[in-house]
Amino acid sequence: MKQRFGDRVFQAANGLFLGLLALVTFFPIYYVFIVSFTDPSEFLLKKFVLFPQKWSLEAYEYLLSTKAFPRSLGNSAFLAVIGTLCSLAVSSSFAYALSQRRMLLRRPLMLLVLLTILFSPGIIPHYLLVRELGLINSLWSLILPSLANGWTVLLMKGFFDSLPAELGESAAMDGSGAVRTWLTIILPLSLPALAAFGLFFAVGYWNQFFSALLYLNDAAQWPIQVLLQNMLKSASTIDLTIPGQHVEAPPSEMLKMASVIIAITPILLVYPFLQKHFAKGAMVGSVKG
Fold first, then answer.
1. Measured between alpha carbons, how far is residue 64 from residues 57, 175, 200, 227, 247 in Å?
2. d(Cα 201, Cα 114) in Å, to the nearest integer?
3. Is the pTM of this model over 0.70?
4. Where in the cell is it found (predicted)?
5. Does 288 have pLDDT greater than 80?
6. DSSP conformation letters of 230-255
7. Helix, strand, or coil here: 55?
8. Residue 279: is its pLDDT beyond 70?
9. Which residues of 171-204 are buried (b: 16+ CB within 10 A; e: fewer)?
10. Residue 192's Cα: distance from chain center in Å?
11. Which candidate in 102, 142, 224, 231 could, as Cys together with 72 as Cys, close a disulfide (CB 3.0–4.6 Å)?
12. Residue-wise pLDDT tens digits, 59-102
């Protein structure tokens, strides 16, 4: 069909608007990236750099040579890896149990899950619970209270409901128990859903910030997001010196930009490998519940 003049004008204007919006969105990330790789002498001379004449890794080398920054990266990596594995294990096993119609107390447990979605106890009860468990200043305070949430459990249950019931029945006839059926049959078929929810969990744990402020008073336990916030607020409050060496630090703005790039890189690297499973896992779990 031949397009009318008005349609062509609208499409051109729409494309121009979306292009400008993409440019405005992308430019801050581009600027942070460029400044982090700029030579310190050139940055001090120009202050505003769109494309450096001389590239340098000095800001990254300095950050990774300090004691605080690699330690925070390790804390965040621990949260992302161990937290994600624990959350997937708890959420998937609980959701699979709720998908079994013969399970005892299935309806009361479903009601409890729904109540956790509708009502939240608030910050103070959460803090009191963590304190009574003796988890203050422990990275486990950011993992154990976040092992599962009602919305994720319901979505996973919807995915397990979409699997043929005959799989479990045939496995039971062959003498397989519930746990063995879940481990050897259900989980391999659930890789798309596990990959999708694993990405959700990993991003959540890697970006832990507010809970870390509440429960972690020791700077040695800070994840990268808390350290980054303190660096952006005031680099003078963070010990970013290199142990045993007297090395002149790059400009604080360059250190801030480099720390931002390091903080967002792991998620950017992981997402492409899980993207092919993401849409399928999320959609299947949300269609039938």
1. 11, 54, 27, 13, 13
2. 20
3. yes
4. Cell membrane
5. no
6. HHHH-GGGS--PPTT---PPPPHHHH
7. strand
8. no
9. beeeebeeeebbeebbbeebebbbbbbbbbbbeb
10. 17
11. 224
12. 898 888 888 889 999 999 999 999 999 999 999 889 888 888 77
Q: Which CATH number fits domain 58-287: 1.10.3720.10, 2.40.50.140, 3.30.365.10, 3.90.1680.10?
A: 1.10.3720.10
The structure tokens listed for 86 are 């624990």
Taking residues 28-51, report their average pLDDT: 86
Residue pair 117/150 in contact by the 8 Å Cβ criterion: yes
Q: Interhelix angle for 68-98 vs 224-233, to 10°?
A: 140
Mean pLDDT of 156-184: 79
Q: pLDDT exceeding 70 applies to what percent of the chain?
A: 89
Given the structure tokens 């300095």, which residue do they identify?
Answer: 62
Please state, in angstroms and as integers, the Cα–Cα distance from residue 17 to each residue in 4, 6, 24, 29, 181, following that order: 20, 16, 11, 19, 53
Cβ density class 146-164: b for 16+ within 10 Å, e for less: bebbeebbbbbbbbbbebe
Domain boundaries, the chain: 5-46, 58-287
